[in-house]
Design goal:
Radius of gyration: 16 Å
Helix content: 25-40%
Distance between the termini: 44 Å
Number of helices: 4
Oligomer: single chain
Order of helices and strands: HEHEEEHEH
Strand order of the largest sheet: 1-2-3-4-5
Length: 156
């Protein structure tokens, strides 16, 4: 993986399906110490990806260098009321392949998403991160994100 390729090769894949290869990071890797995801399960089926890629309200971005290094799946959220009329770009999923970590791929993707949101008149960019995912929390704080709200649960 070469750093210099990332600057010019980050592209939006809104109307073009990303490559579907089981070796690419379109699969959520199960965390070692949590049961949030089933190991080896896909987050999206091929059909779901094909549908998502055609939806302008759910922009997708891919960092690639002959193979997919990482991706960001986003959703426009329109909050319209007399008191609050803003558009948010919600990052539903930002993932970097394990082999590509440490090469600023996630940072480049996040910056690309941020620029896209600004160009599209968004008020803010939001995302959720699991409390047990310390490395993601540190990464997002380094990117300048701060806690907006807490989501809480009681396991039954």
């Amino acid at each position: 993986i070469r750093h210099e390729l990332l600057a010019g090769r980050l592209r939006a894949a809104v109307h073009e399906p990303p490559r579907h290869d089981p070796e690419q990071p379109f699969f959520i890797e199960a965390a070692n110490d949590t049961d949030l995801f089933k190991a080896g399960e896909k987050k999206y089926t091929t059909e779901e990806l094909e549908t998502l890629v055609k939806n302008d309200e759910k922009p997708m971005f891919v960092a690639e260098d002959d193979v997919i290094l990482g991706y960001a799946f986003c959703i426009f959220q329109h909050h319209g009321s007399s008191m609050y009329n803003k558009t948010t770009l919600y990052i539903d999923d930002l993932c970097v392949s394990e082999k590509s970590r440490g090469y600023k791929v996630g940072t480049k993707l996040y910056e690309f998403v941020l620029d896209f949101a600004k160009k599209n008149g968004c008020y803010n960019v939001t995302l959720n991160v699991w409390d047990c995912n310390e490395s993601a929390k540190i990464f997002y704080e380094k990117c300048g994100l701060s806690i907006q709200k807490y989501g809480m649960e009681k396991i039954l």
